[in-house]
Amino acid sequence: MFEIDPRSATPIYEQIIKKMKELCIKGVLKPGDKLPSVREMSSMIIANPNTVSKAYKELEREGLIETLRGRGTFVSKMVQKKLDEEKIEMIKEELRQIMIDAFYAGISFEQIYQWMKDMNNEFANAFHK
Amino acid sequence: MFEIDPRSATPIYEQIIKKMKELCIKGVLKPGDKLPSVREMSSMIIANPNTVSKAYKELEREGLIETLRGRGTFVSKMVQKKLDEEKIEMIKEELRQIMIDAFYAGISFEQIYQWMKDMNNEFANAFHK
Amino acid sequence: MFEIDPRSATPIYEQIIKKMKELCIKGVLKPGDKLPSVREMSSMIIANPNTVSKAYKELEREGLIETLRGRGTFVSKMVQKKLDEEKIEMIKEELRQIMIDAFYAGISFEQIYQWMKDMNNEFANAFHK
Amino acid sequence: MFEIDPRSATPIYEQIIKKMKELCIKGVLKPGDKLPSVREMSSMIIANPNTVSKAYKELEREGLIETLRGRGTFVSKMVQKKLDEEKIEMIKEELRQIMIDAFYAGISFEQIYQWMKDMNNEFANAFHK
DNA sequence: GTGGTCTAGACCACC
DNA sequence: GTGGTCTAGACCACT
What we know:
Strand order of the largest sheet of chain A: 1-2
Oligomer: homotetramer
Strand content of chain A: 5-15%
Order of helices and strands of chain A: HHHEEHH
Number of helices of chain A: 5
Radius of gyration of chain A: 17 Å
């Protein structure tokens, strides 16, 4: 359920954030669900507690999770999708980069579109809710 | 033509690589074209020759450019689109990440698809060769 | 244990790579072993950290070692001997060159074969695993 | 007959030297044969005359070819195989390196030995003359 | 502590 | 002229 690759170039704390977001969007983690504590999580994925803490703090800053003192950390009930112009530009730029990489890897436009549709389905049609 | 942002979080050498790939894919740089020498480029974008060199070497490793000893660096004549399974998985993973980020940024599926189509048109020559 | 010749024509970073491969193949370095940090190694062999870093990165690219962010560099657990057709051709070409050089140096075929056998014994564990 | 790769990492002048030695050892070039002039050769392989000249000079220094003023350059009649201790050590070191590379490429000892025998045959049994 | 990136400047071999 | 290698030292993010 929660796989982290310490060999990856992407920082561990970032991998945690991404995984968390994915689990939420897929509906595996639902609003109100309790998350493992920092200590539990760090021993689960064999990482430094500081690293897990950093990820949790960032997720809280983004509003995906909430920490209730003495009770634990929970998935937020309402996730507000904020239209951050800067963030949107970043995503667009990343998409452009993927298109370029895909070209050099010999992947067709149609293939990418197919993947996109598959992912949307996998994400419980998050985009159409 | 060649803009680099030294303040960006993405390393300069990576920015060069991306820019180069984009110029090749758009047809601004054609097979056989001579690239600016390491020294020229470094003074153009105000960066260290080593940084430019690093970018050039990576581009050569990927097969996009070739260096002829003592003569300079040139855009490769044959860019073989090799179907590297590992690379494809990586791209797919990146696409998945973008879809997730897009959702949280409140970007619609249709919007992303529109962007993709626009980019595809922009790179039209290359993609439909 | 780790001798480098700064006067040699072969670059220092390449000497490090070769030495490392030899130590791995001889079993002196075992899978999972921690390598000296870039700084340690650079002071050990009296070279610049950048030079050591370059060697480590190449070894990682080849899959012999792995770097765990913030923790250090380690000998890979699974070194997959991938049958890269291009690499094999390169080795064959190098062997051809050696045979030619050996002829002009007055070395007999039998002598070369003897050397090969000796080396094979030296690397025995690795070769017959 | 005479192929040079300007993209290769090995210098062009060295490629010429190696090719020449190979042609001699194979018996394609026989003692007394006339070589193309520097100018001819340079236009043949599309290289700078200086580069060809450098190769010829080195080959002459090694005793493989001889220049007769006003007549041209010829393959030497007697090639003395000199037993240079330093050279021999170098070759042995190169052989060791190949054995290591071969291991990581998944090539067996037997395969290498077979290649060696094939090459010896190809070289008109130079080693057994 | 670790490796990743970068600058400033140097020397070398090759063409 | 070109790129390849190297040093000395710096800053940064990650663990």
